[in-house]
Amino acid sequence: MLYYFLVPLVGEWTALNVFRYITFRSLGALITALVISVLLGPRFIAWLRRVKCGQYIHEDVTAHAAKAGTPTMGGIMIIFSLGLSLLLWADMTNAYVWQTFFVFVGFGAVGLWDDLTKLRHHENRGISGRAKMSGQCLVALVAMWLLYINDNCDTTLLIPFVKEWTPDLGIFYVPFGVFVMVAASNAVNLTDGLDGLAIGPTIVASAVFAIFIYVTGNARLASYLLVPYVPGIGEVTVFCAALVGAGLGFLWFNAYPAQVFMGDVGSLSLGGVLGYLALLSKQELVLAVVGGLFVVETLSVIMQVGYFRWTGGKRLFRMAPLHHHFELKGVPESKIIIRFWITSILLALVALSMLKLR
Ligand code: 57M
């Protein structure tokens, strides 16, 4: 809104010209989302406790028994603070901003459906895997259709370090995009198993995609870095910055020992939108590097289940996902979390270097 109301007044006050700049409004969006979530947090968490939105912990999970009753669905706070900040700082006439917010809220709605179902049923039983997957695929399909029918849709696939070959997926870019978003959504969901373990790397990835999106939407920078230029995409940088701010605000309360968990409403929305940002910035394969931690956590589950079936009952890890393996080896939770964060920062630096090393 500030963009819409203040930029026309630049004639009277030239200082207002700063509101034209995506960088300035991105900084404003980050700080606004952070302040809203930090101020809102205590009241929201108290409300979650009042309406008994406490985390159910299965009795077989002794390591986390003390966490039983921790308020969950904190992802609602992330979506709310980001949405308010976006309305204030972004150019809301930009279709890409609305489409990105649709993906964020759409995946969040699927997660909320699961969270509320868990609360209503005993033993923390949520919606079926099929229902969750169908909801995720439906949101992703609508998002990909909106992207594909846009004249600026670039269906080529950029392969890191390969300049000569950029395969054009054509109509198959739609199912590919659905896969990227649904896979990312479930990977973040699996990772969200220790205090701050999912939100930390998500903040790092959001900051990286803010840079990628800004470059993709800037003709001069895109040409210099040999990445596709997509007109209008640059405004989504404001979304990424608001996501960093909202994530930092949530981490303020989710940091060990957590006062709140994000719930599926948070993990599914964060993962789905990271996948969408990778598609928008034409960095689909770089997502596997930026979100390398989420990939490793998911692979550990796939390997565990595959090995279990192949060996007739043996385990490759003490428990999957990988963070539980380290926990059962006696590594303190806070040490696992910080080391995962350090790894995600290193992976982010590698991903950023891939932008230049083409
Ligand atoms: C998502 N949910 C956390 C919280 C969070 C196929 C199998 C790998 C599925 C997987 C599973 O259940 N995944 C569901 C992970 C849960 O967190 C809640 O869920 C939301 C995210 N969706 O926001 O509301 C628990 O994680 C802990 N937690 C924190 N701090 C946080 O900030 O401590 C979460 C956030 C919370 C809390 O204890 O209750 C979860 O872990 O369930 N299953 C598993 O991950 C299980 N692994 C397993 O069964 N492995 C098997 C096979 C299937 C691979 C094996 O290795 O043989 C583990 N889950 C649990 N304990 N809870 C096993 C140990």
Observed structural traits:
mainly alpha; globular; 358 residues; binds Muraymycin D2; 64% helix; single chain
Task: Describe, in plain words, how this protein is organized in 3D.
The protein has 14 helices and no strands. It is an all-alpha fold. α2 (22-50) packs parallel to α9, α3 crosses α10 (263-280) and α7 runs parallel beside α10. It starts with a helix and ends with a helix. The site of Muraymycin D2 (57M) has 27 residues, from α6, α10 and α12.
- The amount of beta strand, in percent, is under 5%
Radius of gyration, in Å, reads: 20 Å
Q: What is the tally of beta strands?
A: 0
| Low-confidence segments | none
| Unique ligands | Muraymycin D2
Strand and helix order: HHHHHHHHHHHHHH
Helical stretch tally = 14
Largest sheet: none
Ends: how far apart?
Answer: 38 Å
Globular, elongated, flat, extended or rod-shaped: what is the shape? globular
Overall mean pLDDT stands at 94
Class from secondary-structure proportions:
mainly alpha
> Can you give the helix content as a percent range?
55-70%
**What is the number of domains?**
1
